Amino acid sequence: MKKTYIAPLIATLLFIISLGAAEPRFLTTAPEVFYAMLPPPPADDSPAGLADIETILQVQKDRTPAQVERARRVEKQNVMSLGAWLFGPDFTKENLPRTYAFLRRATTERGEIVHAMKDQWSRTRPYDRGLGVEKCVPNRPAGTSYPSGHSASGALWEVLFSAAMPEYETFFTSARREIMWCRVLAGVHYPSDTQAGGLIGHAIARDMLKTPATRAAVKEMRAEVLAFLEKHPQAAARAQNAAAKGEPPRA
């Protein structure tokens, strides 16, 4: 018998209702298209599932204080994080309100898809399996494990930031990889969770870029960021140095 998933059906109905909202959506493709993109998570006793847990246990064994700080920094990520890592602490929602509003809306739409997927698969978090995995971040993540919401957000932001500021694309790609790996370092996600999150985040962002509303928002974001850099020369200098290294800051 074919399994029926209630959460994706509810998400689809909410998506249809939202199309009639006053504000144009960045994402107009039906949720089912994204649900079909990911396979189920690997079974615990499959080669991929065993590799997932062995990777986490080995990472935990070798985890350093600096890696714990990296994982905790990523745990606290928000829609401005990639910009703040590149441009510095002045890259805030107060200084860039249009950028913040755009990324927040896009991230909310991303969440509708990913949360339904989490409910659909209900994969147990690695630290809840009684196999010796200990998370190193203070908070207990909401929801189940597959796909990774942090990774999906990181991939979404990577694409949108890169569309607005293509001169820093290499940096944003490295930042997305840092987010994905830090969720494994933290002990809260399997590697396959983060890969799935990255794939679906990329797919959602690229689909968003097909809509006029998203493309217009990207243009506004670029204009606002460039104006911000003119007012904050120290941020421009920081960005040049970070882009030259091609890596986000690490603790």
TrEMBL record:
Residues 96-209 form the Phosphatidic acid phosphatase type 2/haloperoxidase domain. Its EC number is 3.1.3.2. Transmembrane segments: none annotated. It comes from Termitidicoccus mucosus. Pfam families: PAP2. GO terms for molecular function: acid phosphatase activity. It comes from the Bacteria. Belongs to the class A bacterial acid phosphatase family. GO terms for cellular component: outer membrane-bounded periplasmic space. Keywords: Hydrolase. It catalyses: a phosphate monoester + H2O = an alcohol + phosphate. This is Acid phosphatase.
